[in-house]
Design brief:
There is one protein chain. By secondary structure, the protein is mainly alpha-helical. About 95% of the residues lie in helices and about 0% in strands. It contains 2 helices and no strands. It starts with a helix and ends with a helix.
Amino acid sequence: MNTAEWILVMFLSTALLVFLILAIVLTIKLIRVTEEVKKIVIKGQDIADKADDIVDNVRDMSSVGGLVKTLVNKYTKSKDNKKGQK
């Protein structure tokens, strides 16, 4: 091989090495970002579940049936507490 071919082979080998290292680094970064996104999605789902519970509670308290149900539950719990204290 003459000198020009050696220079071309060295240039291409160096470029391939650089791109390989960049691909490895970017893959590692992508895995870390994916893990963070997974944590955010789980946290968002927890918040959505809590918001759904709050909406259910408000709906129960705003309807007459829910209000009566809540009062009956509090009344029966207070009677149970008084019986337990005696």
